[in-house]
Design goal:
six-stranded mixed barrel; 25 helices; alpha+beta; 15-stranded mixed sheet
């Protein structure tokens, strides 16, 4: 450059201003010196934001929301897949499951096994290094009396019992105590830090004695260890771990495969072949379960198999328990849903794509403006590589700003997200390098995706033609931008349809007829602590606001009693779930009798009688009619005790709705048939407002204290217990609601930006049409119709995809809705209306402008 002139080929640009872009002199831009280049890119970026505030705002908001969504999904998914991976031997620990032997035709797996399984594994599988069993005695009353004679009593949950090698196999570090010996002897226990503080405060717990149980079953236990609090992503979540030797019943039942009260884990030797282990498991049930079948069910293993049932053993990796590939009925904790996790992974990826598409669309929609700018930079010496780098840097800077905003949004949303999903997720950049790596990867990926198409598209044309005004409008570019708009709204509609279907399914489950009235049913736990028995129940029934009350051994959906029975005169043994209850049980629940009668307090012989449901009658091989009454079933496990059938109920759901209705019996409360030690009182309260209900509960607490010496009062509502079974589905629905809202927001921002830019480009056309007599309505339709077509195309593509996805999800439910086309139609119309509103507002503004102002230069 000399004397303010710059020579390019045969053309001479004589004005000094030609050496500037946005006021930046090109003579200081040296590609060999990166520092001025960086400064140059930063200045260009800053002035772009200053000149194009609206488009920059839309870009940053779209990218920020996408990054926040992706970050939330990453935190959730990494937590889900991280379950139980903190154990030192996680890759060598497997749980042994078996066929669900307590259900007819149920092919799902059962995590509960009998104590006898562990002995068979030790004998038959040489790959086993150690075996650990975990028993669930249930919640226990634990009391501690300190030096000041103050008593602290709690109805302690998460109480397990295990073998002495538990802490050698599983990595639950002990703060105090010896992991090898802490659970070696009877009446010893290990507490977590939080549990120890609850009982002992600042005292040293080691060596202290606590009392477990109540009445005749009360025992003293010595605290021999304190464990760190259990991580949130652990399947085994205990507050108190007891020694297995404290439960002689486990040793007595060491032969049994049908006393399914433990979970069995095995630690394999290093280098063991899991396929070899699976092969060895195939023959173990035939060899070892036969004795249990003969003693408990009075039938041989061959007869059991011939009856159409199976008995198989399966291995499940410890790290796969939380997200199982098949349905497994867990004993210690609930499992997650792998399909939901995959869906959220896909949603996170989609959010990133939608945000990047927005950026690409808005960048390329400014084709003519950016083309002239880029052409001038080409003519002034910038190469294609340098121009492409400029677009990538621009995208990178947009993404950097968006990442900071996205992280702030994530931190703000995280508490609400945790509440919705039931998680305790944290975003700690200082202590978790994986999050930092994820953020860096997200920044890089989104920068490359966002900058790729503009960099290629806007740096490839002929600069001379562009400056002469001969640049083609680019049908290919418009087609690509249109296809990206279609993709954005297609994904948005799929998510909204999914949200609607999930909501309908959850509503269907909550409102489905269970065969009894679950509303206004309250369950009081641990009534075995109450003195007076029937007197206590009568006092509860007479409480103001209580309609009726019944004492029982279990209440839907938590009916866990079960054993094998057979019809008298038949050799076929069948699993039968049961509860023990008094004569008020069925009336209180609202279960209706189809044939026969209920128990009666006036008939002493009812103590050895039973009431069956329809499914149990069919399973026993009888007809469901009055001929069933007077027939008898036999309990072969206890000297062939007989029970006379006096009634048949309609089928009702005594388990959650994710399981079919199985055989069910109600035995009289007075019969000594063993069904565990816990007792409950289920009571029906009258329909009342919140204040009246709270008053009733307070009255129940007063009655409770009169009969239990101030022990903890625990209660729950039956409808809430049913709802808790679908907590993961509810959380999925809540997550979908958030994601669909974010998706439609991103799509709407993109459509808004493209509409505004389209109107800028067609301002003179609209002015000419208005001068020629076009009405405002016709002008709005002119602008809106193209985008309306795109929304219709998006709906046509989204409907079959959404239908397939929801069908896959609904398959997991035993009882599910029939899909209605109204949801699909409503979403399509709603999205179309939204798009029309977005385009119409700015179209009306453009159409209302005075054409004289628009066409003044013409």
């Amino acid at each position: 450059m000399q004397n303010g002139q710059n020579h390019i080929g045969n053309n001479t640009i004589c004005e000094p201003k030609a050496d500037f872009i946005y006021g930046i002199p090109f003579d200081f831009v040296d590609p060999a010196n990166p520092n001025p280049m960086i400064k140059y890119y930063l200045i260009l970026f800053a002035r772009k934001i200053q000149r194009q505030k609206l488009f920059s705002f839309i870009n940053i908001m779209g990218l920020s929301v996408g990054m926040a969504s992706a970050l939330l999904m990453y935190l959730f998914v990494s937590n889900e897949f991280g379950h139980d991976r903190f154990h030192k031997y996680a890759d060598r620990i497997y749980r042994v499951n078996q066929t669900f032997i307590w259900g007819e035709g149920n092919k799902n797996q059962f995590s509960s096994t009998g104590p006898g399984v562990s002995f068979a594994l030790e004998a038959e599988i040489p790959e086993v290094e150690q075996i650990v069993r975990i028993h669930t005695p249930g919640d226990l009353l634990i009391s501690y009396t300190n030096a000041a004679k103050e008593i602290k009593s709690f109805d302690q949950g998460k109480v397990f019992a295990t073998d002495s090698n538990f802490f050698q196999v599983f990595t639950f570090p002990l703060i105090k105590g010896n992991p090898r010996t802490a659970l070696r002897y009877p009446q010893t226990l290990v507490m977590t830090q939080s549990a120890a503080v609850k009982y002992f405060g600042n005292e040293d717990p080691i060596g202290k004695l606590v009392r477990l149980g109540e009445g005749d079953q009360q025992q003293n236990y010595e605290v021999t260890g304190i464990a760190k609090d259990i991580p949130d992503n652990s399947y085994i979540k205990f507050d108190v771990m007891l020694s297995m030797t404290s439960f002689p019943v486990v040793k007595r039942m060491s032969w049994s495969w049908v006393w399914t009260q433990v979970e069995t884990f095995m630690l394999l030797k290093p280098g063991s072949s899991i396929e070899q282990v699976k092969a060895r498991l195939k023959d173990i049930p035939r060899k070892y379960a036969a004795t249990s079948l003969e003693r408990a069910m009075n039938m041989s293993y061959d007869d059991y198999i011939k009856s159409g049932r199976e008995w198989n053993l399966y291995v499940q990796p410890l790290t796969g328990i939380h997200l199982p590939e098949t349905t497994v009925y867990n004993r210690l904790n609930d499992a997650g849903n792998i399909k939901i996790v995959y869906a959220l992974i896909a949603a996170g990826i989609v959010m990133v794509l939608l945000s990047c598409i927005n950026f690409m669309n808005l960048s390329t929609s400014q084709y003519v403006r950016r083309a002239k700018e880029t052409s001038l930079r080409k003519l002034l010496g910038s190469g294609r590589q340098q121009l492409s780098m400029g677009f990538f840097v621009e995208a990178f800077l947009f993404c950097c700003i968006s990442l900071i905003i996205g992280m702030c949004l994530t931190q703000m949303i995280l508490p609400t997200f945790n509440f919705i999903t039931g998680k305790a997720l944290q975003m700690n950049l200082l202590s978790d390098w994986k999050i930092v790596a994820a953020l860096a990867s997200l920044l890089l990926i989104m920068s490359l995706l966002s900058g790729s198409y503009p960099a290629i598209f806007l740096s490839a044309f002929n600069p001379v033609e562009s400056l002469k005004g001969k640049l083609k409008s680019g049908k290919e570019g418009r087609a690509l931008r249109s296809s990206m708009v279609v993709f954005q709204f297609m994904i948005s509609m799929v998510l909204i349809i999914l949200t609607g279907i999930v909501s309908q399914q959850l509503q269907y489950i909550s409102e489905k007829d269970l065969g009894f009235d679950k509303e206004n049913l309250l369950v009081i736990d641990h009534t075995e602590w109450a003195k007076g028995g029937e007197t206590f129940v009568n006092a509860i029934a007479q409480t103001q606001g209580v309609v009726s009350a019944s004492r029982c051994s279990s209440v839907p959906p938590r009916v866990w009693g079960g054993d094998s029975f057979q019809a008298k005169g038949s050799d076929k043994t069948m699993p039968l779930n049961f509860a023990k209850a008094d004569e008020n049980y069925l009336p209180t629940l609202g279960v209706k009798l189809r044939f026969g009668r209920n128990f009666s307090k006036e008939i002493p012989g009812d103590s050895s009688r039973v009431i069956l449901n329809e499914t149990a009658v069919i399973a026993l091989g009888w007809k469901v009619d009055e001929s069933v009454l007077g027939k008898k079933i036999v309990y072969p496990g206890n000297d062939n005790i007989e029970f006379e059938v006096i009634g048949v109920t309609y089928d009702y759901h005594f388990w959650a709705l994710n399981a079919p209705v199985e055989s069910m019996a109600v035995f009289n409360y007075k019969h000594p048939l063993f069904d565990g030690n816990k007792r409950f009182v289920v009571l029906r309260v009258g329909s009342q407002n919140r204040e009246a209900l709270q008053s009733t509960i307070e009255s129940l607490k007063i009655k409770w204290k009169e009969f239990t010496d101030d022990k903890p009062f625990q209660f729950s509502f039956v409808d809430e217990n049913f709802a808790n079974a679908f907590k993961s589905a509810q959380q999925f629905g809540n997550s979908l609601t958030i994601l669909s809202g974010i998706a439609i927001l991103i799509a709407a921002l993109g459509l808004l930006g493209m509409t505004i830019y389209t109107l800028e480009q067609r301002t003179k056309e609209i002015g000419i049409r208005k001068v020629s007599g076009a009405s405002v309505t016709s002008l709005v339709i002119l602008v809106s119709k193209d985008y309306s077509k795109l929304i219709v195309i998006a709906f046509v593509l989204s409907a079959p995809l959404a239908y397939w996805v929801v069908q896959q999800w609904l398959e997991e439910f035993e009882f599910r809705i029939t899909l209605s086309p109204m949801v699909f139609v409503a979403v399509g119309i709603g999205t179309l209306v939204l798009a029309v509103l977005i385009t119409s507002y700015h179209s009306i503004k453009a159409a209302m402008r005075n054409p004289v102002e628009v066409l003044r230069d013409e």
